[in-house]
């Protein structure tokens, strides 16, 4: 297996770049093996978590061992076609994700 490397000496990365990627618009029936095949081309993967309940289906988290591998994956896989669906690959932003979670929790409390 070959990996594509981005390292060029002391390359400075933007602050939003990190090892954890948030992937949207996945086919609901994608397997973890298929995810490893797609994302593993860009470097060693520590973990992949695929959403399984009705709110998280079609999404996944991919954690790379190296930040440069994660950047390469985002650069190459954003817009990549998988089963006639174009992937949306973003860097995981904890602050933004926790705000969305808090907002959903508030909406849930309105009804119950």
TrEMBL record:
GO terms classed as biological process: mRNA processing; RNA splicing
Matches recorded under SMART domains: RRM
One Pfam family named in its UniProt record: RRM_1
Entry-linked SUPFAM superfamilies: RNA-binding domain, RBD (SSF54928)
Any one GO molecular-function label of the UniProt entry: mRNA binding
Every RRM domain range: 19-94
Key words, A-Z: mRNA processing, mRNA splicing, Nucleus, RNA-binding
GO cellular component: cytoplasm; nucleus
Domain of life of the native organism: Eukaryota
Subcellular location: Nucleus
Protein name: Splicing factor 3B subunit 6-like protein
Gene name, Swiss-Prot/TrEMBL: LOC113783910
């Amino acid at each position: 297996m070959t990996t594509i490397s981005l390292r060029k000496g002391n390359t400075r990365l933007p602050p939003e770049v990190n090892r954890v990627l948030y992937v949207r618009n996945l086919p609901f029936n994608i397997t973890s093996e298929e995810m490893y095949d797609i994302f593993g081309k860009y470097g060693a993967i520590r973990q992949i978590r695929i959403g399984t309940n009705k709110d998280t289906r079609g999404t996944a988290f991919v954690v790379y061992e190296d930040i440069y591998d994660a950047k390469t994956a985002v650069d190459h896989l954003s817009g990549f076609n998988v089963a006639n669906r174009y992937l949306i690959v973003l860097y995981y932003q904890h602050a933004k994700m926790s705000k969305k979670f808090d907002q959903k929790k508030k909406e849930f409390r309105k009804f119950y």
